[in-house]
Specification:
Order of helices and strands: HH
Number of helices: 2
Distance between the termini: 46 Å
Shape: elongated
Number of strands: 0
Structural class: mainly alpha
């Protein structure tokens, strides 16, 4: 699903999940978010170490 907003996709998933009995896990966006979080944590840790 590449069209529309992320909010629309989330609401569509919330509505269709109980109707169909399945839950779709967006693996690619989840992996991207984890990668960004790890990068931010590494940069923050490095900056804190250089500050001392």
């Amino acid at each position: 699903m590449t069209d529309g907003s992320p909010a629309k996709a989330a609401v569509t998933g919330l509505v269709s999940g109980p109707q169909t009995g399945t839950v779709r896990v967006p693996v690619l966006p989840l992996a991207g978010a984890v990668a960004v979080a790890v990068a931010v944590a590494a940069l923050t840790s490095r900056a804190a170490a250089l500050r001392d």
